[in-house]
Amino acid sequence: xxxxxxxxxxxxxxxxxxxxxxxxxxxxxxxxxxxxxxxxxxxxxxxxxxxxxxxxxxxxxxxxxxxxxxxxxxxxxxxxxxxxxxxxxxxxxxxxxxxxxxxxxxx
Length: 107
Known about the structure:
The protein is built from 4 helices and 5 strands. The chain is an alpha+beta fold.
């Protein structure tokens, strides 16, 4: 499984000539990227994306564990999106460099 850190991180941007800081909403961004129009989702894929989006939205931990198929859906989505910028580097890194973790069944 892949472990993706969901906690927000701080980004800088310029507004009216001043540098400002604000949190980058990781969970919301993960959900948004799953539904970009350029994915051209068919009905079945839309429903599968929604199941993954709900899993992310409902996660109460600071990280989420994704199964291989779920992780592939997320990576495919970020590979379709165009226009990422410097503030997105940590977001993309968290996905593409997600830690592999072994999960043990509880007995």
